[in-house]
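fold-stage: in
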Amino acid sequence: MKAQSTDKKTFQLTENGQQLGELIYENLFFLNAEIKLTSSDVFEIKPVGLFQTSINVTQNGTEIAKLVMNWRGEIVISYQDGEEYVLKLNTFFFGKYIIENKKEEKIIQLDPKFNWREFHYNYDIVYNITDDNKSKDPLLLLLGVYATNYFVACMSGSSAGMM
């Protein structure tokens, strides 16, 4: 599975050449974005709060999920139904990001590949199929790409352009 940047603002999620969805940023500052799935579902991603420290994911004005960076430098993805996932850097030197479920099982790994010629990231995605069907959910996978881009921007000290 791959998430490839088609330009500096759009990532396409594909598996075996089949498109599963897109992550489209409003601009190069990559805070506001939209996720479009092949099932015609559309989700909006916007930062909220005084310092924009949390990010809401909505569908037709209804909150579906929330992303928040915790004090350990991990991004917590919380769904309204109580499901919760944590995105963290696997090891600093290897630069791989993993998403764990509440049981601390690694269900998704995002391996960033930086394209120096076009100056943006592409991701190889490996997921572990467990009891939890969310690991194959395109929304969770694209939120993982969004969270990884956000994490990279926060850790690099930049607020733009690390896609």
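fold-stage: in (second)
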Amino acid sequence: MQTNLFTPRELFNSTLCEIEISYKPKYKASELPKVVTSGDAYACLKDVFPSLDYREYFYILCLNRNNKVLGYCQISAGGLSGTIADVRMIMQTALKACSNSIIISHNHPSGNLTPSEADKDLTKKIREAGKVLDIAVLDHLIITSESYFSFADEGLM
């Protein structure tokens, strides 16, 4: 007869992995930059992209209730002509930072500021997820080294 060294409860608890959710702000709310216009968002984002002319990246800005920037996060790094933005990862990040709203962004290494149908579809999908979670998606910026395209400014939100 074999004797178990652990009770079923001890065995179960010993195989569980802890999930840690953390957001550690480094600044007071009064010190955070505020986003009022798409130009403000572009100013915050253009320097966080590792490269605007080589690979495509997807980033989000997380904002508090007063549109102060809580932080940014790289969601994906792609290739020369595309990147994958997982809606679940975007919303996970927004929830982790206790965001009231987000601004999504990606770059077009080609320099073309025109949104593709895939860009429009993704924006719609992210906005729908945000509605369910009560996280507003304020804008989607397409960024190049010289300029940007704002979905909100162009009435596409």
